[in-house]
Amino acid sequence: SYEEDNEDSADLEERPPVITIMGHVDHGKTSLLDAIRNAKVAHGEAGGITQHIGAYSVEQHGKLITFLDTPGHEAFSSMRARGAQLTDIIVIVVAADDGVKPQTRESVKHAQEAKVPVIVAINKMDKPGANPDMVKAQMAELGLNPVDWGGDVEFVGVSAKAMTGIDELLEAILLQAEIMELKANPNNMAKAVVVESTLEKGRGPVATVIVQNGTLKIGDNIVCGSAYGRVRALISDRKAQLQKIGPSETAVVVGLSDVPPSGEILMVMESDKEAREFAQKRYEYDRHRELSH
Ligand code: GDP
């Protein structure tokens, strides 16, 4: 899916999967994202205070999994519209007591159109009215056949509230990722996608990125649309200062001249001059397009 075609396959290494959680309102997308983050700590980082930066990684048996921390399909769709297909696997959350609803169907449609594999998390299993078989039957009608019914889609019962089934869900994600053989070249100059950005007092423009290929390091000359700069800091959702992030990893980048829109591509350039010129060309191009519309 990523820039694998023009890479020498000998340079490619396994990379973590990037996950988007979708599903009907109130079925527990936000709760599940919080439960996963609170249950697992990535990179041996100390626990404690986390900040919402738009993405985070957790570690399961020594393997990383990166989650887009913006539930729903809007972020997914806006990134896809910009040509940035970040998501490797979609987890569709369905409340066990409520079953398939309009936004569940929409999520299934999004996944099918984008040809992204799905794992179904049947949430709220702690509720007395939980009916996982109903969910399976309804999802099977939409073409998502459960593995235990002879199909190829993993369904995992979870409770974001009681914190059950989280390990099983992460195992299912790693299994799916293994089948997909996701690869990237960590030795390249980085290419990343902006998932969230803002102007911060003191820090200036900051952008949360997920690296698609290569490794992003402190000191790298970067360009991001018409913004440019040098990586001054890389900060994780646990406020750790990182020296570098590899493929599928995420951090807040400090050091851009401007706030880039989400979905924008961030690239490392050989020199400061090159980054500046690239950004200037992009600025003129955008301005020209604005004027001619
Ligand atoms: P979202 O709209 O899909 O992001 O759903 P939320 O995460 O905001 O959850 C909606 C409501 O369902 C909240 O009141 C949650 O506390 C509740 N909820 C979420 N997960 C569970 C669960 O596993 N069990 C129960 N009983 N309630 C849950």
Automatic annotation (TrEMBL):
Location of the Tr-type G domain: 14-183
Segments of this protein annotated with the region G-domain: 17-165
Location of this chain's protein in the cell: Cytoplasm
Residue ranges crossing the lipid bilayer per the database entry: none
Binding site for GTP: 23-30, 69-73, 123-126
Protein family (similarity comment): Belongs to the TRAFAC class translation factor GTPase superfamily. Classic translation factor GTPase family. IF-2 subfamily.
Known function: One of the essential components for the initiation of protein synthesis. Protects formylmethionyl-tRNA from spontaneous hydrolysis and promotes its binding to the 30S ribosomal subunits. Also involved in the hydrolysis of GTP during the formation of the 70S ribosomal complex.
Protein name stated in the entry: Translation initiation factor IF-2
Organism: Sulfuricurvum kujiense (strain ATCC BAA-921 / DSM 16994 / JCM 11577 / YK-1)
Gene giving rise to this polypeptide: infB
Coverage span on the entire protein: 330 to 622 of 845
